[in-house]
Amino acid sequence: LLSDRILLSLISDPAVLTRLQTAKGWLFILITAVLLYILISRYLALLHRSERALSESEEKFISLAESTASAIFICSGTFLYVNPAMRLLTGFSREELLQRNLYDLATPEFKSSARKCGEGYLADDRSPARYEFKITTKGGEERWIDFTVSRIAYKGVPSIIGTAFDVTDRKRTEEALWETTRTLQSFIQASPLALVVLDPEGRVKLWNPAAERIFGWSAREVLDKPYPLIPKEKQEEFRSQEDSVLQGQVITGMEAPRRKKDGSLIGASISTAPVYGAGGTVTGTMLILEDISARKHAEAALRDSEEQYRIVAETAQDAIITIDENDTIMLVNKAAERIFGYTREELLGKPVTMLMPEPMRERHAAAVKKHIETGKRSISWVAVGLPGLHKSGKEIFLEISYGESIKEGKYYFIGIIRDVTLRKEAEESLKESEKKYRDLFEESKDAVYISTPQGEFLDINPAGVELFGFSSKEEILSADLGRDIYVNPQEREAFKQIIDRDGFVKDFEVLMRRMDGERLNILITGAAVRNEKGEVTVYRGFMRDVTNQRKLEQQLLQSQKMEATGKLAGGIAHDFNNILTAIISYGSLLQMTLPRDNPARSHAEQILTLADRAANLTQSLLAFSRKQIMNPKPVDMNEIIRRVQKLLSRLIGEDITLETSLSDEDVTAMADSGQIEQVLMNLATNARDAMPEGGSLILRTDLITMDKDFLRRYGYGSPGHYVRISVSDTGSGMNEAIMKRIFDPFFTTKEVGKGTGLGLSIVYGIVKQHNGYINVYSEPGKGTTFRIYLPLYRVQAGGPEEIPEEAPAPRGTETVLLAEDEEPVRTTTGTVLRQFGYTVIEAVDGEDALRKYGEHRDEIDLLLLDVIMPKKNGKEVYSEIKGVRPDIRVLFSSGYTSDIMHRKGILEAGLPFLSKPYTPGDLLLKIREVLQK
Ligand code: ADP
Ligand code: MG
Asked: Which of 656, 666, 787, 858 makes an SS bond possible with 652, Cβ 3.0 to 4.6 Å?
């Protein structure tokens, strides 16, 4: 080997080579060639020797590899060598493996990493390395393999030689262990229970989040520190427990107080067990702690509330009944016994349907079934009214609410049942009485109202709506009392003052107004209603319409006044008539006896004219006192007006125009046309006096029907058809005060000498005598209208009677017994009769008349008897004579009118009668009438 080196160094040394060249050519080359040969052959021999040593070691390796149980391989690109164990491990045959490389065996997930490792390893010069990855065996099984590899040159090629161990089982065990640890860890972390591990010295080794949460210490604060939870006084006790645990004892569910970080104690349920290390030695204790303070609390509360519920149930006034799904009564309270009349024993275990009336049972069953099936309530939590059945069989009214609870999958229903029978009955009777009062309210003929102090109606009954002429209740409720209803707002103020002060008013009279403007006299009786504060909130009460009553009262007053003055006037007129009758008779006699050329004759005429006027006056008085003789006939009022039109025009003068507006209809009434003319004259006279500056006077006729409405409105009249005569003027008019008195006799506003105050009294008297009515409407400055209503005369076929023309005074030859106490009347009457052919026997009183009759019984044809006479009156005289001579003719006369006579029972109706004063003509006519009957 040394020579080789020398050779090599010689050859390779440039100096040597140069020397060789310079020494002499060919020798040098020869020597060099010999040297080279020696060198090469020696080298080749050397090479041969080492090759032989190498194949020897290869053989040794292969025989080892072929027999070992460890898998061995050589690979570079593909496997170059695999031993039988490798074939067993992979499942592939030698040939198959020689076509694959190591990475081909790796499972897909490891393929690239395995390649990288392998290639990287080959490229770098590295010491042996270990790899673990999964391969897929020929059988498709995945196995974890542990490879140990190193680099070699195999047959001159850089290769990897390695061993492979199947570590699948170890891997699996590892994985399972890892899994277990992880799970355990999450248990520890998530546990609601505090988990603590202590080492045998009592230092904390584990402290989970629940422990942190419950006790307030963080793991960092307590790890490796002494266990902090034991209160000082419990340390001893704890240590001995701890010792016994370390001996292997297990404690469970011990309840003891434990300390929190803030120093407070909480109740804990504690379980303790030893922790075993490898080899079964105890390496510490484990504690499981549960905070039971809340549970303790809840348990106590539950105990309390159960007790409370029991008391509530037993003392409740409502029945509480629990039933199960099969309607069986499970629980009842005292109130249930009372309400349904059964004892507890009678109820428990029985079907609840026994407490329901027949028709309810099916409904109940359906509702329960539906509830159980769908969980849907058929009645709500809110109480519903349902009928129940008492033990006595009586139906009772209940209000039921219920709740359900589910225990062990079964429904229980708890019903709370209130007996509302009494309330229901009370409601019913309240409803009834409310209806009663409502009816009373609705049907009352008086207005019943509720109003506010501000002046609006809150409620008013139909009578009230009608009274005020509203068309609906709504309308009147929106009216303003002060403005729309009261005529004088002060009256409302006065009303309020009294009712606010006294709390009530009785028959407080006010003037109100209908919708149509008509005035109403209203009596209010009512009370003020106050709230707790004592303020008046509403008024309520009655309103009675006394308008008619007031009108009637007025009229009664008026007619009483008239009656009284009438009597007075009538009495005077009666006496006066006797005197006038004498004056007229004497005057007539005088006139008849005096020759035409005698100047005294004109005096006599004067006497007669004046007497005539005096008679007219007494006539007026009598007319007013309704004692005037009436001669009623069917008269067309239009006709009369046409007749007096001219007369009236003259009466009222040129400054006043007379207008007439006469009805086209038949306006005939039973009337004394003379008297009606008188009425028109009097009214026209007054109108003229009221229009000194001129104006117009309007006469109007029409037909009118007095119906209920009319009577209610005006407060007088009686139903029927009437002819209405209206006399209007455009004069001064009158105020209320005057209007009230105008019909009074002798009431006048005119200066002495101008007015007598009798004009309207006469009109009134005449209208009354015609069974008519008169009213007046007037306002100062706006003129006046008088309206006269006379009962309509329905013309029978044939039309009105003709008024007979006056004939000359008839004469006679009969004998008349004249009984008259007034000497002047007797004498003048006797004189007149004798002048006209009669024989007259005079008597001075009743008895005298009878005596004279006795003396001249056969001669007497007619009795002319004054009704009022001393000793025996005319009627008595007549009766006695009639007793002996039934066919005796008679004519009564008196200063009183015949109707007074009739009314007083002095004279029977139908007997011939002549009222004083009478003219000779009247007398003679009447006598003929009686005698010729
Ligand atoms: P006299 O006309 O004599 O005064 P009356 O009885 O006729 O008496 O009338 C009584 C009063 O009635 C009159 O004084 C007058 O004040 C009033 N009076 C009657 N008619 C009218 C009228 N048409 N206009 C105004 N006032 C009247
Ligand atoms: Mg007059």
From this structure: 656
Among 726, 742, 785, residue to substitute to test ligand 1 (most atoms within 8 Å of Cβ): 742
φ, ψ (nearest 5 deg) of residue 2: -60, -45
Q: Please state, in angstroms and rounded to a whole number, the distance separating the CA atoms of residues 538 and 483.
A: 18
- Among 760, 762, 776, residue to substitute to test ligand 1 (most atoms within 8 Å of Cβ): 760
Q: DSSP character for 744?
A: S
Determine if ligand 1 sits within 6 Å of the CB of residue 322: no
Amino acid 713: pLDDT: 65
- Dist. CA 850–CA 831, nearest whole Å: 21
> Does 384 sit in the ligand 1 pocket, CB within 6 Å?
no
Distance 776 CA to ligand 2 centre (A): 14
919: CB partners within 8 A, 6+ apart: 584, 588
Q: Which residue has the tokens 């266990």?
A: 227
Is the distance from CB of 419 to CB of 319 less than 8 angstroms?
A: yes
Q: Which residue has the tokens 């809340």?
A: 294
SS3 label, residue 204: strand
Instruction: Reduce the DSSP state of residue 232 to 3 states and report it.
Output: helix
Q: Which residue has the tokens 């000498």?
A: 753
Q: What angle do CA 155, 159, 162 make, to 5 degrees?
A: 115
Q: How far is CA 914 from the centre of its chain?
A: 79
> Using a 6 Å cutoff on CB, does residue 745 contact ligand 1?
no
- Dihedral, CA of residue 740, residue 745, residue 747 and residue 750, to nearest 10: 130
For residue 721, the surrounding DSSP H or E stretch is strand 720-729
Token code pair at residue 375: 């969980």
pLDDT tens per residue, range 40-93: 888 888 777 767 766 777 788 888 888 888 889 888 878 888 989 888 888 999
What would the two tokens of residue 899 be? 């109707």
Please list the alpha-helical segments (H only) found in 594-693.
600-624, 637-652, 673-690
Could you give the C-alpha distances from 230 to 200, 213, 215, 253, in angstroms and in order?
16, 17, 11, 17
Nearest alpha-carbon partner for 527 in 448, 625, 601, 467 = 448
Mean pLDDT of 782-786: 92
CA 757 to chain CA centroid, Å, is 66
Burial class (CB in 10 A: 0-12, 13-18, 19+), 574: buried
pLDDT at 626: 56
Residue 272: how many other CB atoms lie within 10 Å = 21
Residue 800 has pLDDT above 60, yes or no: no
d(CA 117, CA 135): 15
Burial grade of 256 (CB within 10 A; 0-12, 13-18, 19 or more): middle
Task: Tokens 């701890």: give the residue.
Answer: 242
Q: Of the residues 689, 697, 746, 752, which should be mutated to test ligand 1's pocket, given the most ligand atoms within 8 Å of the CB?
A: 689
As a whole number, the mean pLDDT across the chain is 84
DSSP-based three-state secondary structure for 453: coil
DSSP 390: -
Distances (CA, A) of 13 to 23, 42, 932: 15, 20, 220
Residue nearest to atom 19 of ligand 1 (CA): 686
pLDDT digits (tens, 9 = 90+) for 475-484: 999 989 888 8
Residue with tokens 């500056």: 693
CA distances from 780 to 50, 536, 549, 786 (A): 171, 42, 26, 15
Nearest-5° angle of CA 103, CA 108, CA 111? Answer: 30
- What pLDDT, in 10s, does the model give residues 318-341? 999 999 888 899 999 999 999 999
Those residues with Cβ within 8 angstroms of residue 130's Cβ, 6 or more apart along the chain or in another chain = 146, 147, 148, 149
